[in-house]
Each structure stands twice: as structure tokens, then as C-alpha cells.
Structure to design on (160 residues):
């Protein structure tokens, strides 16, 4: 009967191996389902966070819009008062951009840097050091590390 015992042991080992394989497959399926659910939750969280951030940014602009509406309501007033009001709204707009991490850049006289400047022209003038920003055509916004829009500039060059 040793052969029968060996066959039974082999059958038991095969059954145990099959059970282990089934357990591993079930664990793998469960893990795959959990990963899929996690991916879906992350995607939903990202969408929710983006919506909330857009709403927060929009809320920061509401006072600017309110002030523009007030300025338009007084369009028939004295021109000096209108100009003063528009300047106030302009300063408020710059403040909102700065609070969002994108201050207006003052690049005139700085060394030209293609990472933060967009050269639109060049000028040869003894007044300017070659390779510096001679004139800002369109201001840039942001910091050196994080640019919202590069400044469009005229770059000083050497006399050829």
C-alpha cells in the first residue's frame, strides 16, 4: 500500500497547490479591483480639486469685475474720475495676479534670458549694454521659476 499512500499524498499536494493558486488568483483579482477603484478615486479627486481651484481663482476676480461695473456705471462722469477708477481697477488686477503667484515683471535693463523673455526685436544703441533688455514691448508675468507669460522685449546688440 505504499503506492496508494504516495498517490494520496501526491493528490493532496496537488489539491493544496490548486487551492493556493486559486487563493493567489483571488488575491490578485481583489488587488486589481482595488487599484482600479483607487485610480477612479484619484481621477475624481483631481477633477474636484481643479473645479475648486478654478472657483477660488474666479472668486478673486469678482471684486475686479464689481469695480469695472461701477466704473462703467459712472461713464458719464468727469473723465479724470473715470481714468482714476480704471487705474484703481488696473492696480487691483495686478494685485490679484501677484497673489496668485504671477506678479508683473519689471524686465527693462535686465540681462536677456530666453527662459523668461521673448525677443521680438533688437536695437543697436550705445546707451544699452549688449545682451540686455532695452525695451519691454509686452510685460511678462510670473517669477523666474514659474512664468505665466514671457515678456516680449527688444534686446540691445553690438554695433556690427
Amino acid at each position: 500500500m505504499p503506492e496508494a499512500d504516495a498517490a494520496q499524498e501526491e493528490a493532496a499536494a496537488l489539491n493544496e497547490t490548486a487551492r493556493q493558486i486559486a487563493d493567489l488568483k483571488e488575491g490578485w483579482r481583489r488587488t486589481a479591483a482595488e487599484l482600479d477603484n483607487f485610480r477612479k478615486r484619484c481621477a475624481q479627486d483631481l477633477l474636484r480639486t481643479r473645479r475648486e481651484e478654478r472657483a477660488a481663482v474666479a472668486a478673486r476676480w469678482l471684486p475686479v469685475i464689481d469695480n469695472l461695473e461701477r466704473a462703467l456705471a459712472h461713464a458719464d462722469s468727469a473723465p479724470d474720475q473715470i481714468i482714476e477708477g480704471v487705474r484703481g481697477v488696473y492696480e487691483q488686477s495686478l494685485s490679484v495676479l501677484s497673489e496668485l503667484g504671477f506678479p508683473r515683471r519689471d524686465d527693462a535693463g535686465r540681462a536677456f534670458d530666453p527662459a523668461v523673455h521673448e525677443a521680438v526685436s533688437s536695437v543697436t544703441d550705445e546707451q544699452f549694454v549688449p545682451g540686455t533688455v532695452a525695451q519691454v514691448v509686452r510685460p511678462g508675468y510670473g517669477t523666474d521659476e514659474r512664468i505665466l507669460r514671457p515678456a516680449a522685449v527688444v534686446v540691445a546688440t553690438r554695433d556690427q
About this structure: Residues 102-160 form a domain with the Nucleotide Exchange Factor Grpe; Chain A, domain 2 fold (CATH 2.30.22.10). The two ends are 106 Å apart (CA to CA). Helices lie at 2-73, 79-99.
